[in-house]
Amino acid sequence: MKNSIQHIRAFLAVANSGSFAKAAVELNLSPSALTVQIQQLEDWLGVTLLERSPRHVSLTAAGQNNRGPMEKLLLDLDNIVSGSRDLAALRRGVVTIAALPSMCSGALPPILKTFREQFPGVEVRLRDVVAQRIDALVREGEVDFGLGVRARLSHGLEFEVVMMDRLSLFVPLDHPLAERGSIALAELAGQPIILTGRDSSVRERVEQLFADEGLILTPGLEANYMSTVMALVRQGLGMTLLPESADEGRGDLVQVRIEHAGVNREIGLITRTGFSLSPAATRFADLMKKSLPTITT
């Protein structure tokens, strides 16, 4: 293929200059080497492209018909090469990420800001969806990678832990539990708790925690989005169990540590098995791994 491109460039140089001698100088070739390339191209195509005479070179009908398509071919190739080099150098590109709502509202925005400052030509598209949708979007190739939990993984996906998150009790500043440094899960049994929607991985984890300990989970209000749940707690309508990473940093809610090993959860990079990330997606993933906090037990 490389030689074919060289031969096409040789033909176009002669066609544009109308001279083998001028084209040879332009291409830094000897006239004989240029002649060989043209002959090889004609043999490959099975047609004569140039009419040669001692004083003049002209295009045959086949040469005239092929000149335009060959010029377009080289232009397209140059655009492909230029675009690929831009992608490799992160001067342009798109990174699409599917992530848990708690990550999108908490840990990811600062990372996105840093990435944009370093690579302003790369567009990042963030899709905040529940865990089940993350897996589907990654598997279908709709996003470059996902940021979610391991529990829902299935065939065709890989999971790499990038941080440890844990569930925490969020209460208003004036709540009786706001002064507590920590609390046992059993102390929350029977108390109304504001929950996320039933398709949420957080809701699933909370229900499983109470069930494993044989405790009664008493649902209070319910909302699909964590930001809505936080707003309800902020208005004094109850308390909630959410990941520490969901903290919006407004200072008007208190986190109370829950003393239970089961509140820890792994957050990981979810990718398709056998598929490599683009240079831009790889760089974002690397930055994310370095930036995400590790929340210990």
Please name the defining characteristics of this protein.
alpha/beta; 10 helices; ten-stranded mixed β-sheet; single chain; D-Maltodextrin-Binding Protein, domain 2; Arc Repressor Mutant, subunit A; 297 residues; two-stranded antiparallel sheet; 2 domains; 26% strand
Show the helix and strand layout.
Blueprint lengths: L1 H16 L2 H8 L3 H15 L4 E3 L4 E3 L1 H28 L4 E7 L1 H5 L2 H11 L3 E7 L2 H9 L5 E5 L7 E16 L9 E3 L7 E5 L4 H13 L4 E6 L2 H9 L4 E5 L9 E7 L4 E9 L6 H13 L6
Parallel strand pairs: 3-4, 3-5, 7-11, 8-9, 8-10
Antiparallel strand pairs: 1-2, 5-12, 6-10, 6-11, 6-12
Helicity, as a percent range: 40-55%
Alpha-beta content class: alpha/beta
How confident overall, as mean pLDDT? 85
Instruction: Give the overall silhouette.
Output: rod-shaped
Low-confidence stretches: none
Largest sheet: 10 strands, mixed
- Portion in strands: 25-35%
Give the number of helices.
10
Beta strand count: 12
CATH architecture of the largest domain: 3-Layer(aba) Sandwich
Assembly state of the chains shown: single chain
Radius of gyration: 31 Å
Question: In the residues, how many domains can be counted?
Answer: 2
Helix/strand order: HHHEEHEHHEHEEEEHEHEEEH
Give the class-level CATH name of the largest domain: Alpha Beta
Write down the CATH topology of the largest domain: D-Maltodextrin-Binding Protein, domain 2
In whole angstroms, the N-to-C terminal distance is 58 Å
